[in-house]
Specification:
CATH superfamily of the domain at 371-505: ANL, C-terminal domain
Largest sheet: 12 strands, mixed
CATH class of the domain at 371-505: Alpha Beta
CATH topology of the domain at 371-505: GMP Synthetase, Chain A, domain 3
Strand order of the largest sheet: 6-3-7-8-9-10-11-16-15-14-12-13
Mean pLDDT: 90
Shape: globular
Strand content: 15-25%
Number of helices: 17
Helix content: 25-40%
């Protein structure tokens, strides 16, 4: 029966992919039409009235009339919306809000998820990604087996109980179409458990007995915790012994390269499919379509109007923002989005670089606030991910997680970068590892290499080995538990780093 279902869905996905090809071939038309639709839909909201959406006829008018903003600029309006106010940033009331740790002064961001955004961005993006996958792998059998996703948790907003919030993964599981529910694992009771440790344990117990899991999804960090617990329960040496039909992993949220070696050890299958997706709380932006490269195919017709501002002009020249047709290959941009949830010229905090324009393809290079530029080195997360990935591959070791922060120079010492690394298994010779990691980072980032020249501005990086579960404990300590939560790997200050080091010194580890 499930074979028939998979064959039927495969035919549907083939038709869907043909429609996708039109938007990939005509991205500027898709974007122009989408901006017009967004402005028309919100013309009678507070923001639409304030900026006279009904008078905007072209992109230049839109750019000149509306300011670029971030969460701090809109959080008061979002708070009003969470309390039930209608027609503020988007028509009507919005009941769902995606909770994101983000990079703000607040502990959490709450991103509105309208019905239009849920259906025509997040859900649409998922199906479009699956259409891309089946176009590349026609023999895939995702809908013959179960899909294991360890989602987040949902909560009632106490001041206004009609409002709900939680990880975007939890919202998507709650709103999952009927066609997808029979394929979901572990179960909906487990999916919405509040205590994360209990959720992982119950999910591990249930999933270890489910022989029909064929695909998995979610952020790598927590999946690894779950998978290792499943192997402990079953006594198996890898996941294929637990789930013989396992064939696909849909992942996103963090750079996958530092985790790849662990996954390949857990799933020793040469033709296993890894597909990266770019599904943030704000929207579903892109997916991988060439599985030999790390760049992502941008969706131009998915409820998101895109703009991009060169990173070097982010803080002093907002007029430098350009629409999709104005981007250049190889340049770092801060992403700006206008969405069908009422985010207007909003910066989610991601930085991207285009690798192609026919069709448009990007790599995620980091965060506007997650980078290190303490000495003019301009090191991005993409740089450190690539450097540590190469180093681990050369030395035959694996890591669970890492964090980097500067040690600032003083009258007696020069500055350097300090790395806290939680290895998975064997700890290598740290002197050799540090030298190789430093050399790899120099080869990747010319600014870092220049500052490292003859140790004139920067000394070689330092490494502190973190005990097992350090970063998981740190996340728990700071209340950052959920499927979308990620360790902030780079920081220009030492607040988070010093907190982690204090836990290590005081042995405050789970």
């Amino acid at each position: 029966m499930r074979g028939i279902v998979n064959s039927t869905i495969k035919l549907y996905l083939k038709t869907r992919y043909k429609k996708l090809e039109y938007s990939f071939s005509n991205p500027h038309v898709s974007q122009a039409d989408l901006l017009e639709d967004l402005l028309f839909s919100a013309s009678e909201t507070e923001v639409g009235t304030q900026y006279h959406f009904d008078e905007i006829r072209k992109y230049q008018d839109f750019k000149e009339r509306l300011p670029i903003n971030d969460y701090e600029d809109v959080k008061l309006d979002i708070n009003r919306m969470m309390h039930g106010e209608a027609d503020v940033l988007w028509p009507g009331t919005i009941s769902w809000y995606a909770k994101s740790s983000g990079t703000t002064h607040d502990k959490s961001k709450f991103i509105p998820v309208s019905r239009q955004n849920l259906k025509h961005c997040h859900v649409k993006g998922f199906w479009d990604s699956i259409a891309v996958l089946y176009n590349n792998f026609p023999e895939a059998k995702i809908f013959e087996y179960n899909n294991l996703v360890l989602g987040g948790t949902l909560y009632d907003f106490e001041p206004y109980p009609l409002t709900k919030f939680g990880d975007i993964s939890a919202i998507l599981i709650h709103e999952m179409p009927l066609v997808g529910r029979p394929f979901y694992s572990p179960d909906f009771q487990t999916a919405f458990m509040k205590k994360w440790d209990e959720k992982i344990e119950r999910a591990a117990q249930l999933a270890s007995k489910d022989r029909e899991i064929g695909s998995i999804g979610g952020v790598p960090t927590w999946n690894i915790v779950l998978f290792k617990r499943i192997l402990e329960i079953t006594g198996k040496s890898n996941l294929l012994e637990v789930w013989p039909n396992l064939q696909v992993y849909l992942h996103g949220g963090v750079n996958f390269q530092p985790y790849r070696a662990q996954f390949e050890a857990l799933i020793p299958k040469s033709d296993f499919i890894y597909q990266e997706t770019y599904n943030a709380s704000e929207g579903y932006f892109a997916c991988q379509n060439d599985y030999m490269t790390q760049d992502l195919l941008l969706f131009p017709d998915n409820g998101i109007f895109y703009e991009f501002i060169p990173l070097e002009k982010l803080h002093h020249d907002h007029s430098a923002a350009v629409p999709l047709e104005g981007v250049e290959i190889g340049k770092n941009y801060a992403l700006i989005i206008s969405t069908n949830s009422g985010l207007w010229r909003y910066m989610p905090g991601d930085t991207v670089m285009f690798t192609a324009t026919e069709p448009y393809k990007i790599v995620i290079t980091g965060r506007t606030k997650h980078f290190i530029n303490a000495f003019g080195e301009e090191v991005m997360v993409s740089n450190t991910d690539e450097a540590i990935g190469k180093t681990c591959e050369t030395m035959g070791v694996k890591i669970r997680e890492y964090m980097v922060a500067p040690i600032y120079l003083n009258t007696n010492t020069k500055g350097c970068h300090q790395w806290v690394i939680e290895f998975d298994g064997r700890v290598p010779d740290l002197e050799i590892f540090a030298k190789l990691l430093d050399d790899n980072l120099k080869s990747i980032n010319s600014d870092y290499e220049a500052k490292r020249f003859q140790d004139m501005a920067l000394e070689r990086l330092q490494i502190v080995v973190a005990p097992r579960l350090t970063f998981e404990s740190w996340l728990r300590k700071n209340g950052k538990i959920g499927a979308q939560v990620k360790v902030p790997r780079l920081s220009n200050d030492r607040k988070q780093m010093d907190d982690v080091l204090s836990m290590i010194r005081n042995e405050v580890i789970l």
